[in-house]
Amino acid sequence: MDWLGDQTRLDRPSYRLENVLTFGFNAFGGARNQVTNALNGVWLGHPVHPPLASLSSGVLGATVALDAYQVTVGRRAKAIDGSLMAQHTLALGILANLGAAVTGATDWQHTHEQARRIGLVHGLLNLTATAMYALSWTERRRKHHLRASLISAVGYAISMSSGVLGGHLVFASGVGTDQSGPQLESAQWVPALAQDCLPDQGLHRVEVDNVGVVLFRSEDGIRAVGEFCPHLAAPMADGWVDRGKVVCPWHGSQFDPESGEVVRGPASAPLPCYQVRTRGGVIEVRATSERPVDDESVVTEACFAEACLTDDNSEAAL
Question: Which of 33, 107, 262, 315 has a Cα-to-Cα distance from 156 of 20 to 30 A?
Answer without folding.
Answer: 107
